[in-house]
Amino acid sequence: MNISVSISNLGLMPIYGPFIGGTFRDSAPNGTFPAIDPATGEHLADVARCGAAEVDEAVRAARAAFPAWKATSVEVRSALLLKLADAIERDLERLTIIDTLDVGRARSEVRGDHLKAISQFRYFAGAILTYEDYGRPIPNGYFVARREPIGVCGQIIPWNVPAIMAAFKLAPALAAGNTVVLKPDENASLSTMELARHIAEIFPPGVVNIVPGYGHEAGAALTAHPGVSKLSFTGSGEIGRIISHAGADRLVPVSLELGGKGANIVFPDIEDVDAVVDNALVASMYCNGQSCLAGSRLFLHDSLYDDFMHCLSVAAKRLTIGAPMNETTRIGCLVSEKQGQRVLGYIDAGKKEGAGLVVGGGRKSVAGHEFGYFIEPTVFEVRNEMRIAQEEIFGPVLSVVRWKDYETMIQEANGTVYGLSAGVYTSSIATAMDAANRLEAGSIWINQFSNLATGVPFGGVKESGHGSEHCRETLNLYTHVKAVTFQGRVAAPWYAV
Fold it and tell me: What was the pLDDT predicted at 116?
């Protein structure tokens, strides 16, 4: 069913100023940038183009709020996170529509984003209640180590899954007792700004501050601000390096979740080819392929290669390309013309390199949405050293590698600068565990790619970043250890011994 929505019924603000100290600022001294529906080109709202002045004001508000928020009991913090989760749940369909219009992805997918965000807020509301101190006896006294919040956290999120990314950053930081200045991506700010409206009704002023804007302006000011005590970033490796250097210059901790080029490996002993085909397609095409964890390299064993590729090409052609608001759509439009041109450029590069185009490879026109970049699900037969098998495309492009020798395949699967995700399909537990142990990635998913259950760690190795999100250990990223020792009596001075 194709559903049209009147923007005027969504309750969007005409202009979203920075959210600082619990309120939206009316003024935008640096002007605004438009939020545009990438499928239709329709103007949705205007968003403030924040710069150094707004970031400074936001950091000062967060620093002022920090002492009281740090002193707030974990029970209170937990309760407020649960209230925010409930507010999002009540507003689920409206927020889903806003994000669908803002980023161009299929509505059914985006609804899942917000459900994942709800689960993150609820998870950390529970996790913080058992994040306890520890201690041990020492001679004539007692030692206690306690975890304390770091302070003001500067967080920067990408455009592909804004609801999930905001929850990944905010939930653990707030649960641990930090205050936050968050910068959403300029390509997808609306759902984060709408989230601020709920935050304003639940959290004390200054605990969460949101400064939309461009990376080289608001993002650069946030990473360089001396009042920020912790940096967290999800996005490209190029920007991750810049943020890492900024953290090193000021000696503040940095956590990074960066790009990926996930290897998805099919062994010859699989029992249900159709099920593996479907899962491998979801792994590569979910989020229109605009996902750092995508299984964008498929390693197929030679003995089942031809039959599997036939099923894969048939299944890829069945994927419904259509209007993002249509509930039956599986492939929506890419987030912008820039991203569309980037993906088409990689497809052309693959053809020039000699990769075999199996299916797709072009831009598709969708009635009433001619403005958008709808790219056909694209499958290439490649050699692992080709650019399209090595570089992150961030689009619906799957590179398939034929393999025979296990050792060579493992070497090739690990043969990228990335190490975020990998998948294994096999009926053998021994094979699965050996491959999982040898693959260089932060997440290994066996017989179901992207099996990212709440509480399971998510993070990368190599150039995919460092630090685990999505789990109890994430609280360690937002706290530091303080050691306190209690002595039964004042010890005699050393010189009197």
Answer: 97
Give me the active site residues, please: 257, 292
DSSP 8: G
CA distances from 114 to 90, 108, 350, 356 (A): 11, 11, 35, 38
How far apart (Å, rounded) are the C-alpha atoms in residues 233 and 182? Answer: 10
- pLDDT per residue as tens digits for the range 172-218: 999 999 999 999 999 999 999 999 999 999 999 999 999 999 999 99
Given a contact cutoff of 8 angstroms between Cβ atoms, the answer to whether 440 and 414 are in contact is: yes
Asked if residue 313 and residue 188 are part of one domain, the reply reads: no
| Region for 257 from its dihedrals, namely left if φ exceeds 0, alpha if ψ lies in -120 to 50, beta otherwise | beta
Q: How many domains would you assign to the chain?
A: 2
pTM above 0.90, yes or no: yes
73 in the same domain as 60: yes
CATH of the domain at 404: 3.40.309.10
Q: What percent of the chain has pLDDT over 70?
A: 98
3-state secondary structure at position 21: coil
Supply the pLDDT for residue 285.
Answer: 97
Question: Two tokens at 436?
Answer: 């999982």
Phi and psi at residue 140, to the nearest 5°: 60, 25
